[in-house]
Design brief:
The structure is a homodimer of 442-residue chains. The first copy, chain A, has 442 residues and is an alpha/beta fold. Chain A is built from 15 helices and 21 strands. In chain A, the strands form five sheets. In chain A, strands 15-14-3-7-5-19-20 form a seven-stranded antiparallel sheet. A six-stranded parallel sheet of chain A has the order 9-8-13-12-11-10. The radius of gyration of chain A is 25 Å and the shape is globular. Chains A, B: Catalyzes the first step in the biosynthesis of NAD from nicotinic acid, the ATP-dependent synthesis of beta-nicotinate D-ribonucleotide from nicotinate and 5-phospho-D-ribose 1-phosphate.
Chain lengths: 442, 442
């Protein structure tokens, strides 16, 4: 296990469903395990009413695939619990991914049937990665997609991710990372700060005021310790009295006041007025109380300086999973020739075969179509932007996609892709995907 | 960091919001850090329409609190990023929790304002645990609560947790654990099997059929490798043909067929008939396609033998977080006397003071009220069952609550608490909490 920024990355190989390994065993038995295969991760549809999704998690995934090995602990466990037979354990003990991985860059927008990740390897190698790939992409894309809408709703005002307490402790770290990729300014999560070099911030909670005998004593302690530029939480008792006390103690250098309850629109108005009347024109107003993209949009006209977003961000604002699936779309036959495959059951028809993907842009550089094709990509892309990037080649991770560098690159990609999408992505109302997905076969 | 069942537990101290540590710094400055405090985790309300919640995560939390230390990596990070000052770093470097923790046993039912966890320590110690406590209890209780409803809907038919791919990879492990506590039979998640000794199971995916030239070849390989008692996925192409092929190859020893798409009620009926006609009365039918508690209830009259549940389980079936909060309810003053405290802002009024909690039972042993009181518990409990258990005493973890042992104990507690609740908990329709929460002050 490798170490990055003081973080011992965990074993990743058992973040896996039991059946991936029993399928491996049966496929080793039949020989199909060694067939060359193409697996694809994609969403059949976007969450209800969403216009677009944002790919999240790719960098984390690539780091984890590099660590996806079966050591003594894992092999002993699988032997003791009789999950698979000795032949399969031998295979696993020697496993390290040796194929190719392509996909949409992290931070990129996606639409229904966009081939977000393509894994080309033997069936065995691609099969046992399935659960892990989907866990990461489904979670992180759900968070990045929700965060992107919040950033759009917030306009130029910074958003701070502070949802750690409302999601599992490791999900919280992943959510902080995904939020930053989608444009959040900073996070409250310290572990995310350590692992990915993210900026962390924080103010104070009501308990801090309550542990002191008076609000004044609490504010005095915070200002003395953190400086006048700190953000004071002013709604523990009476907001107006809180603001007056804060200004009295910190003077016109007071950094910010935080509002965490009540009618935020009305409250922000009169608190702004009060601050201005007291000579604190430069003291900012931070609002936090259970915000989502709709509440942020509703605060557009209120004199608010930044938003702290918690629960709705880390739960994907109504869509806690991106519902991505991972399907075998092509594999070799006994002659070594590739054959497109797809499940025949109704309502779940997949489009077989190795894909290419392009975003068609008009002469103003605005996206008009998502082109997903089978066969050879047309030579002249014209205004089309190719979407598939190579991440892994013959098992070797290509540089630039992982770690803190990968987060910055994904954040940049998100900002760029958003500029390219049609204006309809700025609408929070339910609707169709912002651009249609068009299939080609060449 | 301690090791349990081959699992190196991670650093837990940075699963923490930035502001917990800046509050600590300011409270060290004012001296309030050393005041004795009582913090309480509770839900102001249940998720919309739910009748009850189930406490999940306590065992995981207690394991993690024992590991909640700040080593060189953590201290260096906090120093380098200037999160807190040197005095605070000194405090953190020497930190280990030394107080008491009480709470509802894991697996216990809870209602609005039930004091699920009570932390008694200095303000400093209780403050810096806040984010970590809420992350774990909010996630695991959300999953356990959803799982409990599914188990009720499933009646005597076993449920299998198979949602790993639809949630973050570590959340998947926690979700598997919470599902087992609430009565699930087994999980697909191998890491959960390793850490907590949970039973893992698995069948095969459509890709396994598709990588073979024919469904027959795929089934042959699976039967040859896993035995006739395996479960065959029969809906890759044509369900009827799939069932016939499965029976032909495996004979009457065929363990199960799995249906993962289509109209499951109708399909289960005729597949059961077909299996019986073919002489496979003992072959079970497993259904899996996007089930939640409502879909499970709708399948009550269908000849189904077990349910595989994924997405809706790991996302809390519409309530992905339990919305628990963690509030300072009491602390000492300068004379060392305890003072009840509560935030005054409207709509969020807390009930100050150290609580006791009892479940009032009628003469038939059925719960009628949740009694939450301040002050001394009445001497004669009568039919009341005391709910608060001690988990940690002077920083020492009391035995029985953690590890695989804790999971079994919590599963037993869940089964027992469900027998005690009024029959209304079996209704999936939206409604009020099954029993009212009554406040007492003695």
């Amino acid at each position: 296990m490798s170490t990055s920024a003081g973080w011992d990355r965990p074993r990743t190989s058992l973040y896996t469903d039991h059946y991936e390994l029993t399928m491996l065993q049966a496929a080793l038995h039949s020989g199909a395990a060694h067939r060359e295969s193409v697996f694809e991760a994609f969403a059949r549809r976007l969450p209800d009413g969403r216009r677009y999704g944002i790919v999240g998690g790719t960098g984390r995934l690539l780091e984890g695939i590099a660590d996806f090995r079966f050591g003594d602990t894992e092999i002993d466990f699988l032997r003791r619990t009789k999950v698979v037979n000795e032949e399969t354990l031998d295979y696993l003990a020697g496993f390290s991914f040796s194929g190719d991985i392509w996909g949409y860059a992290e931070g990129e927008a996606y639409f229904p049937n966009s081939p977000i990740l393509i894994v080309e390897s033997t069936f065995a190698e691609a099969c046992i990665l399935e659960t892990y790939i989907l866990s990461i992409l489904n979670h992180d894309s759900a968070i990045a997609s929700a965060a992107s809408r919040m950033i759009t709703a917030a306009g130029n005002r910074p958003c701070v991710e502070m949802g750690s307490r409302r999601t599992q402790e490791e999900s919280a770290v992943s959510a902080a990372r995904a939020a930053i990729i989608a444009g959040f300014d900073s996070t409250s999560n310290l572990e995310a700060g350590l692992r990915y070099g993210l900026k962390t911030v924080g103010t104070a909670a009501h308990s801090f005021t309550l542990v002191h005998d008076t609000e004044q004593e609490a504010f005095e302690a915070q200002i003395a310790s953190m400086g006048a530029g700190t953000a004071l939480l002013v709604d523990t008792y009476d907001v107006e009295a809180g603001v007056r006390t804060a200004v009295e103690l910190a003077g016109d250098k007071l950094g910010a006041v935080r509002l965490d309850s009540g009618d935020l629109v009305a409250q922000a108005q009169w608190v702004r007025q009060l601050l201005d009347d007291l000579g604190n024109e430069r003291t900012r107003i931070i609002v936090t109380s259970d915000l989502d993209e709709f509440a942020i949009a509703a605060l557009q006209s209120a004199p608010v300086d930044s938003y702290g977003v918690g629960t709705s961000l880390v739960t994907g604002s109504g869509a806690p999973t991106a519902s991505l699936v991972y399907k075998l779309v092509s594999r070799t036959d006994d002659d070594g020739d590739f054959v497109s495959v797809a499940k025949a059951a109704k309502n779940k028809a997949s489009m077989g075969g190795r894909k290419y993907a392009l975003r068609k842009l008009n002469e103003r550089g605005t996206a008009t179509q998502e082109i997903v094709g089978i066969g050879h990509r047309p030579d002249d892309d014209g205004n089309d932007r190719p979407l598939l990037q190579q991440f892994v080649k013959n098992g070797e991770l290509l540089p630039g996609w992982t770690g803190a560098e990968g987060v910055l690159r994904a954040r940049k990609r998100h900002a760029e892709t958003m500029k390219e999408l049609p204006a309809v992505v700025n609408r929070l109302q339910r609707g169709e995907a912002a651009i249609p997905t068009i299939y080609e076969e060449n």
